[in-house]
Amino acid sequence: MDIRVEQLTAGYAGHTAVDRVDLTVGSGQVVAIVGPNGCGKSTLLRCVARLHQPRSGKVFAGDADVWELRQRDAAHRIALLPQAPQAPEAVTVAGLVRYGRHPHQGLFRQWSHEDEEAVTRALEATGTTGLADRRLDQLSGGQRQRCWLAMALAQETPIVLLDEPTSALDIGHAVEVLDLVREVAAEGRTIVMVVHDLAGAARYADTLVAMRAGRIVASGPPREIVDADLVRELYGIEAEILTATSDGTPVVVPTVSVPPVAA
């Protein structure tokens, strides 16, 4: 399922965080949104997920305006894994992943064999089956993040939004999570993720969306848009752009700080 954002503007208490943004994400793509802190990345994601009401503009998931859908219907199309999610105390991994089936429950539809199968598939896809009976708070950061992703996958939506899925992870666990993201997209789901690590975003995303001061300043395949000028505009630093010998991915090597470009 594709995503279309049209002239979206959103903010908080007089501050505009997202300013007239247009964005199209094709089905089955991995899109990484990058940019400095406070540039509007997470606000944009929250607007798509129906968690932050935009001031103006439209957000479409497939053929439907998500803000005109009932919340339950939107949750059948879009799953969000937020920053720093909170779990109930002492919840097991299996218990956490079952929360992903909440949008499918209702007064006349209780827990079913279909729900159990969805949980099993999500655990298998994330390599967490062996952790199912463990408490979430007893796991490593990388294991916990895979379990949270399993919960999002159990929702079985065609669109999955991830807000900084690799934050606070070491490089090994970050690569593990991003490899998993690619596997999920290969099954046909559309993935949009906010990522701070420009190198990781460039390696794993089909499309890179660069934001600054609430606007999209560049968008396209990483090999086409990542250059020294873009790094300077986003982060106010000079950098050399190298090319990975294995796959041609751009590699950003910072050199010296410069004053940030005026918004």
UniProtKB/TrEMBL annotation:
Entry's SMART domains? AAA
* GO molecular function list: ATP binding; ATP hydrolysis activity
Q: Which GO biological process annotations does it have?
A: iron ion transport
Where in this chain does the record put each ABC transporter domain?
A: 3-238
Q: How does it sit in the membrane?
A: Peripheral membrane protein
Entry-linked PROSITE patterns: ABC_TRANSPORTER_2
Q: Which residues form a coiled coil?
A: none
- Keyword Chloroplast listed? The answer is no
> What SUPFAM superfamilies does the record point to?
P-loop containing nucleoside triphosphate hydrolases
Tell me where it resides.
Answer: Cell membrane
One GO cellular component this record assigns the protein to is: plasma membrane
Q: Does the keyword Cell membrane apply?
A: yes
State where it is primarily located: membrane
Q: Which UniProt keywords apply?
A: ATP-binding, Cell membrane, Ion transport, Iron, Iron transport, Membrane, Nucleotide-binding, Transport
> What PANTHER family does the annotation carry?
IRON(3+)-HYDROXAMATE IMPORT ATP-BINDING PROTEIN FHUC
**Record's protein name:** Iron-dicitrate transporter ATP-binding subunit
What organism is this sequence from? Streptomyces nanshensis
Q: What's the encoding gene here?
A: fecE
